[in-house]
Amino acid sequence: MKKYSWEEFARLMGVEPQVLENKEARLLKKFVDEITWPTHCNYCQGLDLSNPNPVHHPSYELTPACNHDCIFCYSNVAVKLGKAPKPGYYGWDNPKAITVSQYGEPLLSPRIVEVNKMLRERFPEARLDLQTNGSLLTRELWEKLDFDIVMISLDAATREKHKMITNADTFDAVVNALRIVGEDKSVVSAVRTIFMPGINDEDIPKIAELAASLGIDEMFLQPLTIHELNVERLRKAGLDFERAESVREFLKVAMEAKKYIDVRISGCLLVQLKQMDPLTLFSVRRVAREVAPLVKRSKLEL
């Protein structure tokens, strides 16, 4: 008996076969294939899919305190649960990159300049990244600092929305910080933005346009991780929990922002997305829930 392909069989039945096509899925795949991860993610263990237990870059933690009280913040959760790391260096000898810092607001610490200089001397080959909300950065302080990458958090395009998300009236100060680092072409500058559908998805392209106008090099766009202690605050703010877990929704917003600035998404996520076919990208969901953040690196005395 002759075997027929499904197309041949359909034609024998008088039906012209059609290939199911999802144009949006193909656009998502093209976007994922073309973009890369933030400069900050270079050297990160999460880029290696063969690593069964990757950890973040080493970090120097200065303080768990912060002058913002963001509705999504993992650092706040860590403080409330007694899980925030004590000040100090968390990593290993001969690091390729160090972040200052992953918890709290580093510019609140009077030791920021001292620690910056100490890390330069102790690890002269390492890239130094500053992660800050930017609200305390002045030109005077900037002249005393020496970093290779500066990531400034901004999750709203207006003063009112920023105040709602951060519980702080610091929008103008953050914009000024973006302006300061955007003018300094000796560093890589990035605006770090969290995707919170129902809260700031319409703001993200506007943030991208604003940051680009201030000379910022990259937008580091991250999906939201929902910590249990933040659930009620996020719900009151209008978070669409269903869309927060959709990779498609996240990528669609990234594509809109890409019209204005060099948009990049977390390397440990992007390397996984690049392995997926178009229809998987279109439908896949991510686990967005977590109880508490943990530092997986040991503290090393310097």
From TrEMBL:
- InterPro entries documented for this protein: Aldolase_TIM, Elp3/MiaA/NifB-like_rSAM, rSAM, rSAM_sf
Q: Would I find Hydrolase among this entry's keywords?
A: no
- Domain Radical SAM core residues, every copy: 20-264
Q: Where is the signal peptide?
A: none
Q: Which cofactor does it need?
A: [4Fe-4S] cluster
Reply yes or no: does the keyword Iron-sulfur apply: yes
Give the matching Gene3D superfamilies: Aldolase class I
Please provide, alphabetically and separated by semicolons, the GO molecular function terms listed in this UniProt record: 4 iron, 4 sulfur cluster binding; catalytic activity; metal ion binding
Q: Which UniProt keywords apply?
A: 4Fe-4S, Iron, Iron-sulfur, Metal-binding, S-adenosyl-L-methionine
**Which PANTHER family does this one have?**
ARYLSULFATASE REGULATORY PROTEIN, FEMO COFACTOR BIOSYNTHESIS PROTEIN NIFB-RELATED
* Protein name, as recorded: Radical SAM family protein
